[in-house]
Amino acid sequence: MDAFTIHTGTAAPLHRSNVDTDQIIPAEYLKRITRHGFEDALFASWRKDPDFVLNRPEYQGVSILVSGPDFGTGSSREHAVWALQDFGFRVVLCSRFADIFRGNSGKGGLLTAVIPQSAIEELWEIVEADPSIPITVDLQERKVHVGEFMCDFEVDDYVRWRLLEGLDDIGITLEHSDVISEFEKNRPSFLPSLG
Amino acid sequence: MGRTLAEKVWSDHIIHEGEGLPDLLYIDLHLIHEVTSPQAFDGLRAAGRPLRRPDLTVATEDHNIPTVDVDKPIADPVSRIQVETLRENCKEFGVTLFPLGDVEQGIVHVVGPQMGLTQPGMTIVCGDSHTSTHGAFGALAFGIGTSEVEHVMATQSLPLKPFKTMAINVEGALPEGVAAKDIILAVIAQIGTSGGQGYVLEYRGSAIRALSMEGRMTICNMSIEAGARAGMIAPDSTTFDYIKGKPHAPCGKDWESAVSYWETLNTDPDAQFDREIAIEASTLRPFVTWGTNPGQGLPLDQVVPDPKAVSDPVERAAIENALAYMDLRPGQPLKEIAIDTVFLGSCTNGRIEDLRAAALVIKNRKVADGVRLLVVPGSTRVRIEAESEGLDQIFLEAGAEWRGAGCSMCLAMNPDKLAPGERSASTSNRNFEGRQGPGGRTHLVSPEVAAATAVRGTLSAPTDLAEA
Asked: What is the pTM of this model?
């Protein structure tokens, strides 16, 4: 995973709540067995509407999504994170994320930063007044700033550390292989096994 | 201070803990399927890592398989490649697989319990958010993404931050015709789709203890719809009776040691939950969703809500969007909503008891003209058991389609889909926009309401039906 320290880019406002993972990527795109190439699948159904925010000329090339509450609800499909990244997003700002989606984002290097809904609404106004305005998301300082606007965001300490270092979770866990083996020796014999 | 059920199972699985670090938890069972595993297997191969415990890993084909012509090659070439990839990966890494056509094949969350692989006190994960189903046995079970699937394959463990705990107390007796599905739809409507975020839910109280294992699985299954990764129910004699004699249940002395451990798996009287909510079972009625998230539900005898009556602008906009998508108007009685399709199945309500409940309603009645009733058993075993009881004949005589086992129209990855604009009453778990097919509209219901709706052609409870 690539390290994430600070990102500056333009943003798209998404005026929706409960953006479930079936909207982020519909099930028909989950038939693919690759980890990349999902940019066409992102919000596939909403993108059929020419007025959808990501179709509008002023929001081309955005890398930050500013969403209403409860982003990423529903399915555990990590394809939702891959589709956002393949489309070009590095950051999603929202007042509440669903747990599994947020966990998946942290694994893949997509930053999900929590800011209050009031700040989301301020950002919507700023971005809609000038869609070309660059927004900076600083993971080191946990701050979002654009022009005069600045606010702190919440991110889990451990996820932040892994993102800053660009670390692979599996590699970290495998350092504990001995303890895992020790634990396995003491598992009760009644537990099921397919061996 | 005492501990909750979730805290007991959690602490029994800690391999490693450290200041400022997530706990490293051992995983007792890893369930996999064709859709969320291929990229994880690729990751193992790319890093040259083995799959640590093939004996604690089991695979089935469910999400992306047809429910007709299951003895023929899969017609959609993209789906076929995904299923074949699972078969090749399982062979290469030594994982037991129940493929299409195998008697043990079925939806992953139906297969685990029916084989006795799901047991109290275990940690169970799967690349599927409805893994919460297995919590009905007092297991700590939750959905994971593909990166975590790869992590469990490589290490049989997961780094996790402890959850908070929430008690959902459901006391009293359920009225006649009210099902487990109605309890969980009412819970989600009460706490909302984010109410359970960061929590493990523990369903408690006399109404929960009175439920069968099937009913308990229906409830735990939809914990994720309330935002909770996991839901649990303390194991009791109902649980032990269900497990006893299953193919992977402990035997002899192991059974005795297992039961004496399982009997310790309940929340201590002096334990504290981070949050508690209460629901009086006797007040519940058959429930149905009217909107595009599972929290947008009401008792079936109510009317479509009016967004103008809601002051919160975000909530009001959500209702307006939902009504526009669902093509409903404020004040419309829910029972007047006409449907085209009824889907009976899924990991929520595709078990034998669900099929029995629906068959009891539909027996000696006919599916309304112009309505399609799709009956999709949750597993091949459920299908065989239903056929041995003659349930298939009851459904076929009513005019229903009797299908092979799989996820089917719950998520519409396979050819079982709603056409744009079509409206379903569905016993599944999600009413998101396009969930059952692009442009399709979904109302979530219990098996009993699904059957009555198929007969009348409008959303209906069994009590709305004339004598058969």
From this structure: 0.97
